[in-house]
Amino acid sequence: MARSPASSDITFPPGFVWGAATASYQIEGAAHEDGRGPSIWDTFSHTPGAVVDGHTGDVACDHYHRYSDDVALMAEVGLQAYRFSVAWPRIQPDGSGPINPAGLDFYDRLVDELRGHDIEPVITLYHWDLPQALEDRGGWTDRDTAHRLAEYAEAVHARLGDRVDVWTTLNEPWCAAFLGYAAGVHAPGRTDPAAAFAAAHHLNLGHGLTVRALRAAGASTLGVTVNPALVLPTEPADAGHADAVRLVDGLRNRIFLDPMLRGEYSEDVLEHIERFTEPTFIHDGDAATIGAPIELLGVNYYRPTHVAAGAAGPASPAYPGTERVEFRPDAAPHTDMGWAIEPDGLRQLLEKLSRDYPGTPLYVTENGAAYPTGPDADSRVPDAERIRYLDAHLRAAHQALTNGVDLRGYFVWSLLDNFEWAEGYSKRFGLVYVDYRTQRRVLKDSALWYEQVVRRNGLPKLAT
Questions:
Q1: Does 103 fall in a domain?
Q2: Which residues constitute the catalytic centre (predicted)?
Q3: Is 421 annotated as a binding residue?
């Protein structure tokens, strides 16, 4: 997937993959065109008060119509790979049944455009835009949705599998389950912890069923993308603080990683689920299905999570059962999202995953920062803060490599400024500035900097 590296003071391994990432609902627009059905994010974003300023993804970056121009920008930046998601409602408007040919035609054109520019397509099959018709039947709380994911994946692979080598099943299942079904701040906006645990299991099951289906169809490079938290105690690690760390680690990380990479749920996680619901949704044989071997684990990293044991109080809505856990505020400095900038957390997380789940190659599939930068009088977009952020995190990733982590690639989030979920268009993560009124694109200084990183396959040594 990568070109020959150039010499550099800090050099990544030959074949290291440099890319950028997006998601279908965040960039495509064309929400009502060519047979696309509604997704849970269409419904949620049109719900008053759900998204900042009432923004929706109806138009987004209009990538559906401007994809060829966007691929040309990718080539200008020198991307070797492009991670994007397929919109399930474009392929199956009702979430099951007949395939919509026009939906597949779009991705057919996009993949050909990428291949024509020597850019490797890396597909995410599910990045949160569940067909609304499936949510109406229970969504991820319904076991049948896992089977429908595999069916949809087979249809996409049948059309694109001759030109797409790398397939990932899910993006950030923790967000889909716990932000969507427990905290209610993401689609579908439900606030039921028991539903969130059922959703988490069915997302796991959907992953396993999809891996099995695509493997049978001939796919050879399969994986999943998670957003594991590096959970750190903010106080000396006595028993109480260690228990808080373990509880949050179980709810955020091990509830997905253990069944996917070890073929089993941890006993403490199962016991915690039983506080909220009898886990009858876990059937005999599910663990073996979920634990089907994969070739890569995608890691999305933005910041660690700092916790301590606390006095009894309300649980975090996204972490059911954390009444005695105190989530500490992020330390300064922050990005525009209010997220702390802690680059060494990426090194620590990659090393922890490598220790805890050896044998699975890792990719940083998302890493980036939001800053409110726009064009100056010369139509240049200076974003030195983003460059410093990316530079520091790449140095941390390189240190993990030096320390023995099998890290194969890095994808910036995001290629384009886009619809940032519940934040609407108020946060800008892109290497490329997007004027949402005119759809004009401008390469930011960070894009020009990243082009040099890709060209040299590394970074200059820091001056001492």
A1: yes
A2: 172, 366
A3: yes
| Predicted model pTM | 0.97
DSSP 121-138: EEEEEESS--BHHHHHTT
On whether 167 is known to bind a ligand per the annotation, the reply is no
Close Cβ partners of 444 (under 8 Å, ≥ 6 residues apart) = 373, 381, 382, 383, 386, 430, 431, 432, 433
d(CA 30, CA 321): 40
Identity of residue 388: R
In this structure, what CATH number is given to the domain that contains residue 270? 3.20.20.80
Question: What is the DSSP secondary structure assignment for residue 31, as one 8-state letter?
Answer: T
171 carries a ligand binding annotation: yes
The predicted-structure confidence for 159-173, as pLDDT tens digits, reads as follows 999 999 999 999 999
Bond from prior residue into 188 cis (ω within 30 degrees of 0): yes
d(CA 30, CA 112): 20
pLDDT tens-digit series, residues 253-309 = 999 999 999 999 999 999 999 999 999 999 999 999 999 999 999 999 999 999 999
Residues labelled as active-site residues: 172, 366
Under 8 Å between Cβ of 32 and 135: no
Number of domains, the chain: 1
Tokens 């940083």, located at residue: 364
